[in-house]
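User: Need the bound-state model for beta-D-mannopyranose:
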Amino acid sequence: MSGNLIVTPGPTSAAIPWEERPEGCSDIVWRSRRNPVIPRDLLATSNSIFNSAVVPFRDGYAGVFRCDDKRRCMRLHFGKSKDGITWDMEPQPIVFETEDEETGKFEYAYDPRVCWIEDRYYITWCNGYHGPTIGVGYTYDFERCCLLENAFLPYNRNGVLFPRRINGKFAMLSRPSDTGHTKFGDIFYSESPDMIHWGRHRFVMGPVGDGWQSTKIGAGPVPIETEEGWLLIYHGVLNSCNGFVYSTGAALLDLEEPWKVIYRTAPYILSPQMLYECVGDVPNVGFPCAALHDKATGQIAVYYGAADTVTCMAYTRMDLLLDFVRDNSI
Ligand code: BMA
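Assistant: Bound-state model below.
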């Protein structure tokens, strides 16, 4: 740990962003009418802002955003918002504080997730250290950030923490991969006593069928704890004759042994269909990285990157989604 990071209070219970399901719409997950909520050029230097993570913070929200700059370097930026929709984005990338010269030598950072555990916000992301792997850091205030060790050896992507210890250990999902645009990918579960050393790796699930999740899959937002299990929203990829198509599904994982899959949707719950999902730097991509959940109302607000260009939101309700996962499981 470097510097004196100041401990500030954790998440608050600000009302989450919400829009009712449009009349006549029977989708389980429906899009915000304000999409894309974050344009590609919110920063003067940004080529695109997408695949980003938002959490409750103080009397509003904070986030870690993937901002690819106009050199097309992949960087992470802090942002703050009162309502979760309109963002005040830091123009400078996050400086990851570390006294360890070696861990500080990463070349790029993308696809962040943010997870409140016990006393701080942990950030995980795809970290360029001799190829992509899972970077881990933490912040108390979304101003300063400490860098920890990479969780795994290259190559790995989509590192997503659970929001509490499981059987006394920190727990993470990840997706071992390759140097490039990986054509395979299973989700694994790993645990750690200290957020540094990761082990006891368990297979959770892999691609299935010949449809939207047939090529590779990866965990999306931090899993949400329910009485029935961990609700995991994840992306699945189809390899079409026109390239990869990134859709979204949901699964329910066992509470104490999360590598055991209870249900998993056969159909997708969201797929690239709107123009802002089908047209952009990488067409046909919806990539969820965060979900806000209001326990009292069951409202869920999902943040997802669209076409590797902009950030969008979609909504669902816990009861609707759980019923759908149960009734449409593979
Ligand atoms: C994945 C990641 C994501 C991206 C997706 C589609 O491999 O690089 O950041 O959204 O491809 O291009």
